[in-house]
Each structure stands twice: as structure tokens, then as C-alpha cells.
Amino acid sequence: MQILPILRVGEGHDVHRTVAGRPLILGNVVVDCDFGLDGHSDADVLLHAVIDALLGATGRGDIGEWFPNTAAEWKDANSGDLLTHVWKSLVADGWQIQNLDCTISAEKPRLGPWKPLIRDRVAGLLGVSAEQVNIKAKSGEAVGPVGRGDAITADAVVLLLGKPKT
Ligand SMILES: [Zn+2]
């Protein structure tokens, strides 16, 4: 009998308001910028979208269920630690990443030069090769909350390969 691969797709979306006086952290990289993002944790909008994509693909709810923003233990949390926590639990159940595709939408700063570093960091956190991860950067075309510079958003789509049940 042929054993078919178990493939699962997941998507994640996140938004954070821009705010002065905090570092801008995208994909666990501190991006050189004169503002940051507001949030309970380090407000890493990209990693939050990635976490939701992973949880979505495996039917495990969303980031708010795993890390409530009312919980003191996650105040100013490093989102790299949150991603590692989630991913370890999925790896233990035999999940592997086929590929992860992400989009960051920000009017400022221009993220083009930061994409390779962010890609390498995200791949490193997940223990996959950089070629399995893609980071796209868009502006807000000067319209809406992103275009006005009020917010940065991130979207992620992941394809996972599961362990066939024998
Ligand atoms: Zn978030």
C-alpha cells in the first residue's frame, strides 16, 4: 500500500502599532530604525505571524492561546523564544518544514537590505536551510495604517510535512 505524505498548509497574519522608544525587531533581528513596535512581548510582528502559521497548519489554535498577552511571564518576551517553544513541540510530533514564505509590510524603514539577515535568522530558529525560507518586503503605498506609518504588518504561509502513521 502506498503511504501518502501528510502535507499541511498554515497561514498567519499579525499587526503591531509603531511607537517611539522601543527597538524595531523583525524576525529576531534588531533593525536600525528610530521607532519600534508596541506590544506585550518584544512585538516581533514577523515571528508572531510565523508562529500562527505553524499553529494553523497543525490545528493547534493561535498565538494568543499559547502566550496570553495578560500573562506576566510573556511580558517583553523574546519572540524567538516563543517560536522555539512552539516549534520544538511540533518537531517532537514529527513535523518538518517544507517551506515558509513571509511578507512584511512597512512604509518605513526600507527593509530590502535587511531581508537576507532576517531570512537567515528565521531559518536558524527553525533549524532549516535559508533556501526553505523567503522574506518579502512591501511598502504601504502611502495609504492605510501601514502607508501612514502607524503600523507594520506581517503575513506568513508555511507548508509542513508530517510523519505518516504506519
Ligand atoms: Zn504580535
Helix content: 25-40%
SSE order, as H and E? EEEEHHHEHEHE
What's the total number of strands? 7
- What would the principal axes of the Cα set say about the shape? globular
- Broad structural category: alpha+beta
Largest sheet: 5 strands, mixed
CATH superfamily: 2-C-methyl-D-erythritol 2,4-cyclodiphosphate synthase
Radius of gyration: 16 Å
Averaged pLDDT: 95
Topology summary:
Layout (H helix, E strand, L loop, with lengths): L5 E14 L4 E3 L2 E3 L4 E2 L7 H13 L5 H4 L12 H14 L3 E10 L9 H12 L6 E6 L5 H4 L3 E12 L4
Parallel strand pairs: 5-6
Antiparallel strand pairs: 1-4, 1-7, 2-3, 5-7
Bound molecules: zinc ion.
Structure explained in plain terms:
The structure is a single chain. By secondary structure, this protein is of the alpha+beta class. The protein has helices spanning 45-57, 63-66, 79-92, 115-126, 144-147; strands spanning 6-19, 24-26, 29-31, 36-37, 96-105, 133-138, 151-162. The protein has a five-stranded mixed sheet with strand order 4-1-7-5-6. The protein has a two-stranded antiparallel ribbon with strand order 2-3. Helix 1 packs parallel to helix 3 (79-92). The longest helix is centred in the middle third of the chain and has 14 residues, at 79-92. The model has no long low-confidence stretch (mean pLDDT 95). Bound molecules: zinc ion. Residues 14, 16, 39, 45, 48 line the site of zinc ion.
